[in-house]
């Protein structure tokens, strides 16, 4: 009876891991996957192993961030909005049961699910771009900023796997795949995500090939050539440059009803709000409402038209967003969260990938609030969990291989 029960739990765990990789892209499905994961984890005996999983630095950083955000609801003028903000962050604790379910035997199911989900979303995105002429993936509720971020993560990951793969055929395919993903990203309107991808990719290549000067120079020259080619032949990219130049000119003229002008105004008001309550902020959930209430009078009301230009959701900057809500307490906690993410990957011999991904997260967070990109954040957590388990599996393989009887 016991072997049958174990086999049933294993099938459930594999199915849920596979399903989550697909479901994370669609909000309707991810709702069910979000509850199935912890349920399967508990059935699999995950509570008994939870201490080991929670000891991962990333899990500690997540729990601390969620705790501080919950604490911030106590001094928020809008506790109902505070709960909604907290719930966004709390949802990413799904990383704990996801990692807890993974092991060497279940790893392929998680990888296949993640690949199927990613390339399925990519195909839908291509259809929207090429056939419908639409940015992002409206069918999956992904704005172009979120879609561009997932493309950037794909570029970084494929460039990393190229170096670690020993199969020349796979390497060649991955070079073409990374170039293809970058080409699509050049044709999305997200400037911040594209810049974060380019800088993070260059950092990754430097760290991978820094001991081989000739190879490093060759790879860098190739990548820069491809980037230049894409930039010069992308109508969307050229339009973005012209739009950015126009936005800057309008901002200097005091007109902020543009993409760049709106961000500059948000950051200006946000920094002013942080200065008012520098240590504990205005409370979880109070950030967006503060902007709407302040723009009417701040600097003579030069930003008052922006509430009609765009609905206020966040401050388009991770650090200003968390600083507005929790002040220095939130900024330090968020910095610790990113540091703990780096430490988790580092302790599993993924320091180069950690540097590239955390660079991408940091740079993306300067122009957008990453927590609002649900699919992007889930994808990063899935990559992290799969990376951890892959390293454990390889360690187990080599320790078994070289044990003398």
UniProtKB/TrEMBL annotation:
Residues 177-334 form the O-antigen ligase-related domain. GO terms for molecular function: ligase activity. The chain crosses the membrane at residues 16-37, 58-74, 86-102, 109-130, 142-162, 169-186, 192-209, 216-233, 322-342, 349-366. One of its GO terms (cellular component) is membrane. Keywords: Ligase, Membrane, Transmembrane, Transmembrane helix. Its main location: membrane. Pfam families: Wzy_C (PF04932). It is found in: Membrane. It is a multi-pass membrane protein. This is O-antigen ligase.
């Amino acid at each position: 009876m016991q072997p049958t029960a174990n086999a049933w739990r294993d099938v459930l765990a594999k199915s849920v891991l596979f399903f989550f990789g697909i479901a994370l892209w669609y909000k309707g499905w991810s709702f069910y996957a979000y509850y199935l994961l912890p349920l399967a984890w508990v059935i699999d005996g995950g509570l008994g192993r939870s201490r080991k999983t929670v000891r991962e630095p990333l899990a500690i950083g997540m729990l601390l961030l969620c705790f501080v955000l919950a604490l911030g609801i106590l001094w928020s003028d809008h506790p109902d909005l505070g709960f909604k903000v907290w719930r966004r962050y709390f949802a990413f604790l799904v990383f704990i049961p996801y990692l807890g379910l993974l092991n060497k035997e279940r790893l392929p199911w998680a990888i296949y699910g993640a690949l199927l989900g990613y390339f399925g979303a990519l195909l839908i995105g291509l259809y929207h771009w090429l056939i419908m002429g639409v940015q992002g993936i409206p069918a999956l509720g992904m704005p172009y900023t979120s879609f561009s971020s997932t493309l950037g993560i794909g570029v970084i990951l494929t460039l990393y796997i190229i170096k670690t793969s020993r199969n020349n055929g796979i390497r060649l395919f991955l070079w073409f795949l990374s170039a293809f993903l970058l080409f699509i990203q050049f044709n999305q309107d997200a400037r911040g995500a594209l810049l974060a991808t380019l800088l993070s990719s260059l950092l990754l290549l430097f760290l991978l090939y820094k001991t081989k000067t000739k190879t490093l120079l060759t790879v860098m020259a190739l990548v820069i050539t491809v980037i230049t080619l894409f930039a010069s032949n992308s109508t969307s990219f050229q339009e973005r440059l012209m739009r950015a130049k126009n936005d800057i000119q309008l901002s200097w003229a005091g007109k902020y009803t543009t993409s760049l002008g709106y961000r500059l105004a948000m950051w200006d008001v946000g920094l002013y709000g942080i200065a008012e309550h520098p240590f504990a902020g205005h409370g979880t959930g109070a950030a967006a409402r503060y902007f709407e209430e302040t723009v009417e009078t701040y600097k003579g009301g030069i930003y008052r038209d922006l509430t009609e230009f765009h609905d206020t959701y966040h401050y388009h900057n991770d650090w200003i967003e968390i600083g507005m809500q929790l002040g220095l307490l939130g900024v330090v906690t968020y910095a610790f969260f990113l540091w703990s993410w780096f430490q988790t990957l580092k302790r599993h011999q993924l320091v180069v990938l950690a540097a590239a991904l955390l660079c991408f997260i940091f740079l993306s967070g300067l122009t957008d609030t990453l927590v609002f990109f649900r699919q992007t954040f889930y994808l990063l957590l899935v990559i992290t969990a799969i990376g951890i388990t892959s390293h454990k599996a390889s360690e187990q393989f080599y320790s078994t291989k070289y044990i003398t009887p």
